């Protein structure tokens, strides 16, 4: 039916029919423009590459039509992430589309069942064996390719100690896969406890030795990242570039078992240490160190000291721990006095209320920027994560609002607040969702003065999760806000919402708050799945840290001068 006949069929007046015709012509013009875009493969690939950070957009593009799908899928499988629970879907995908195998350049296989769903579910061996068998099928499909060894993907493995034998038996059948394992991270076999039986240690040693021997035979790098928590690893020369150590740090006058290990691995670039005392000392020269994270137990009795962590660099001209960027401590004033005296540019601070007095004292110091004197120490601070489960969100938000309005903490790019939530089982879910959305809306408005805040992460310690896919429609947001994350404490995977701009309506701003600042934006929050593509090194190491919860939850990398996406 033509434009005129469709318009005439409406029986509308001539003026209205003309407007209908114009709208239909505009829609058809847009459709024709879209068809022209979809007909250009190079343009589709460029669009797909641009959408690879928020992978939900990449999948949405692939769902448009078959032409889009054939250009998007190779981009999607280039960085192939295989949580153990999805091994069946990945195996099915490649079984139906074997032509995609040659596009896989980076492969990560990790036990999400143990990490995110808890060890109780992971201990159900019948279910777990099925996932492991499907993973074996997937590895068989990848290993059975007839392409050259150089085309095989770099592999990052994160598995439980009790499953090492399974992967060793599979991978030794495919040497071209074995040689490309560049990262091996071992989870406990049960919650927080390693089964360090002789057999398990021997099995792990055989696996590592087999990987390294295969790599040497084929002139590849072998393992360059290794993680094995709760145990001190014997010293040996290697190509390790990053490691996490969980061990008691000894006093300055008591030799630390970590020191000889650091001496043997002077090429380390990334170091994470959990210290059990207020001060920690260990020796080692690490000229290649790019980042260091230290978790301290610091209570109110601790005296602030510039030597919060002393580190012998082996070079008198090198400031002690000049690469220290991430510090974990207890919510108390003495922590920030220590931070203010620290000669390093601490960018990421993680605070817990554990072993601390009431958070009231802490909130009093928030409004004046923790007493950091608005100097270089405060300017370097780009991420604060606070756990104050004895305080309401309104009180915490009010303290930070005062700081932002006073021009403090202006470089803060990411903020996490864990607060005291209300558990009311008799309240309907829809009503509870509205209450929590209103709370979040009030916080977002309170933080309009945070000019560089890009990520806001909230959680109230309850098991509530949002079922809706939009939030805060027609609301006003801080000018730089990109994502809001909500933590449901029954599920370790946060719910992510991204900012989507909409036409501005100034009447939507709550009249109880200050007038709309000039630097703000109007829009809504849109739910997106937690499927950001993680950064991967050129060697194939997926850079997220499995055993450091404070670095798993953080969205931005606060080591560079300008924070960058960890999930990018």
UniProtKB/TrEMBL annotation:
Residues 1-20 are annotated as: Disordered. It comes from the Eukaryota. This is Uncharacterized protein. It comes from Tilletia horrida.
């Amino acid at each position: 039916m033509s434009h005129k006949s469709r318009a005439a069929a409406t029986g509308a007046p001539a003026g209205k029919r003309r407007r209908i015709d114009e709208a239909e012509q505009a829609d058809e013009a847009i459709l024709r423009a879209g068809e022209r875009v979809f007909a250009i493969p190079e343009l589709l690939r460029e669009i797909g590459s641009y959408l690879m950070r928020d992978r939900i957009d990449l999948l949405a593009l692939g769902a448009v039509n078959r032409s889009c799908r054939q250009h998007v899928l190779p981009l999607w499988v280039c960085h192939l992430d295989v949580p153990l629970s999805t091994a069946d879907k990945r195996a099915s995908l490649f079984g139906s589309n074997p032509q995609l195998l040659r596009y896989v350049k980076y492969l990560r296989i990790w036990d999400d069942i143990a990490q995110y769903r808890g060890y109780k579910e992971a201990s159900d061996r019948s279910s777990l064996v099925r996932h492991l068998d499907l993973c074996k099928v997937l590895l068989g499909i990848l290993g059975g390719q007839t392409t050259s060894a150089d085309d095989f993907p770099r592999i990052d493995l994160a598995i439980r100690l009790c499953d090492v034998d399974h992967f060793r038996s599979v991978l030794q059948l495919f040497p071209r896969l074995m040689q490309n394992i560049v990262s091996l991270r071992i989870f406990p076999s049960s919650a927080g406890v390693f089964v360090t039986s002789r057999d398990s240690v021997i099995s792990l040693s055989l696996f590592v030795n087999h990987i390294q021997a295969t790599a040497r035979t084929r002139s590849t790098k072998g393992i360059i990242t290794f993680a094995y928590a709760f145990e001190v690893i014997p010293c040996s020369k290697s190509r390790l570039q990053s490691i996490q150590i969980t061990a008691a740090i000894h006093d300055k006058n008591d030799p630390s078992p970590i020191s000889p290990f650091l001496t043997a691995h002077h090429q380390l670039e990334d170091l994470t240490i959990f210290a059990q005392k207020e001060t920690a000392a260990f020796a080692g020269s690490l000229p290649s160190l790019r980042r260091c994270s230290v978790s301290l137990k610091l209570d109110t009795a601790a005296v602030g000291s510039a030597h919060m962590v002393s580190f012998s660099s082996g070079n008198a001209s090198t400031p002690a721990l000049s690469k220290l960027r991430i510090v974990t401590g207890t919510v108390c004033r003495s922590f920030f006095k220590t931070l203010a005296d620290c000669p390093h540019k601490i960018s990421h601070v993680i605070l817990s209320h554990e072993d601390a007095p009431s958070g009231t004292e802490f909130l009093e110091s928030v409004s004046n920027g923790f007493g950091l004197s608005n100097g270089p120490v405060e300017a370097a601070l780009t991420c604060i994560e606070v756990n104050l489960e004895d305080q309401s969100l309104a009180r915490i938000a009010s303290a930070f609002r005062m700081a932002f309005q006073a021009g403090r903490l202006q470089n803060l790019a990411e903020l996490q607040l864990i607060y005291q939530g209300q558990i009311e089982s008799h309240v309907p879910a829809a009503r509870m969702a509205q209450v929590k959305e209103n709370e979040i809306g009030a916080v977002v408005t309170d933080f309009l003065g945070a000019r560089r805040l890009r990520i806001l992460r909230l959680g109230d310690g309850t098991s509530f999760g949002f079922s809706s896919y939009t939030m805060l429609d027609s609301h006003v947001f801080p000018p730089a806000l990109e994502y809001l994350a909500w933590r449901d404490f029954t599920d370790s995977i946060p719910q992510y919402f991204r900012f989507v701009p909409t036409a501005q309506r100034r009447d939507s701003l709550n009249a109880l708050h200050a007038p709309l600042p000039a630097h703000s934006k109007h829009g809504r929050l849109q739910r997106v799945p937690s499927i950001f593509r993680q950064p991967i090194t050129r060697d194939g190491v997926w850079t997220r840290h499995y055993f450091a919860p404070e670095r798993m939850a953080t969205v931005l990398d606060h080591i560079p001068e300008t924070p960058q996406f960890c999930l990018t």
